[in-house]
Amino acid sequence: MMEILSKRNEKIDYCIVGEASSEKKVGGQIRVGCRGSLHGKLSIFGKQAHVAYPQLTINPIHNSLSSLQELASTEWDKGNENFPATTFQSTNIHSGVGATNVVPEQLDTLFNFRFSTASTANQLQQKTEEILQKLNLQYDIEWRLG
What we know:
Strand content: 25-35%
Distance between the termini: 15 Å
Strand order of the largest sheet: 3-5-1-6
Helix content: 10-25%
Number of strands: 6
Oligomer: single chain
Order of helices and strands: HEEHEEEHE
Shape: elongated
């Protein structure tokens, strides 16, 4: 919508956006703007092998646990008068080939930050990378603003 208005050289001072954020009745809350949404796909790499030879494996499932716990428990900011604090949520995890006796080569997880104006997408990306690097993980991460 903003792109269309910009092309028409139309500027607005205020805007009402309808969204499903009311807790008791439609229109029951007035908000100042909306929080940012930053999506990520994190792939943590290991080394696949049969479970009978654990010395030959690097288990990405085991290695992901501390990183996901740290990301989930990090205080990203304190929010402000208009927005609650930024949160990190894992939304999907997938790993393995379906066998019960094979350590997988890779774990993929989808996650989302809902962030306040106290943080920027770049700050969240940088801090996430710092946490993952500190844990010496082999990983790849893809980002998308939503």
